[in-house]
Amino acid sequence: MKTEEFDFHQVPEDIPHDPVELRGKSRESGRMIVLDRSKTSIEHTVFSNICDYFRPGDLLVLNDSYMLSNTLWFQNGDEPAQLTVYGHEPDSTTIVEIKTDHRLIKPGLVLKSANNDKLTCTLLESQPDNLWKAKFEPLELLVPTLDQHGIRLDENIHLNPTYWQNERQAYRSVYAKSPGSLEIPSAGLHFSKELLDKVIAKGVEVAYITLHVGATEILAVRHISAEEI
């Protein structure tokens, strides 16, 4: 089984490219599908009604991560290099896409950040889909450098560059506080502060976790076959 077997055609016009707030609507106005497992029924409603489905004593777990820019400029001597970050590996390495003179790309190549002279990136080994495993040093400088100087380049998330630069709060949940995701943690994006207060007032407990979302999870299973599962 491969993830490509689950591909389906989607009409581009049906894909929202900007948050609802930037389209003149409220966060709560997003559409919602409710599956009632006890009745095996499906209901179509709007997110503003989500409070109706909670009971006192329920636990609502929310991810407080928010999406960063994912692309930075580096230098290889006088040659510019554009690096797009896809995610982090358990061994503290990072999966990146690099765009520069292809003749210069090889294992061991060390690139210097154009925005932070203390940050470097060393290419370690090539990966499928024209990606590279790389090591940023010091790694703790990567997130703040992306947050302050990065831009968004995406195949699947076509953001309006002006909105992204000037209206970033619209791309974050109202409770987000931890930078680190490379794609939008969208599960709670439609909560407004007022709606969340309403849920809490009903007696629902709220717990926060930090779970950064990256493309590595998708890339890691793209080539898995049934024999490997």
UniProtKB/TrEMBL annotation:
The keyword Repressor does not apply. The keyword Nucleotidyltransferase does not apply. The lineage of its organism: Eukaryota, Fungi, Dikarya, Ascomycota, Pezizomycotina. PANTHER family: S-ADENOSYLMETHIONINE:TRNA RIBOSYLTRANSFERASE-ISOMERASE. This is Queuosine biosynthesis protein. One of its GO terms (biological process) is tRNA queuosine(34) biosynthetic process. Residues 1-23 are annotated as: Disordered. It comes from the Eukaryota. InterPro entries: QueA, QueA_dom1, QueA_dom2, QueA_sf. Keywords: Cytoplasm, Queuosine biosynthesis, S-adenosyl-L-methionine, Transferase. GO terms for molecular function: S-adenosylmethionine:tRNA ribosyltransferase-isomerase activity.
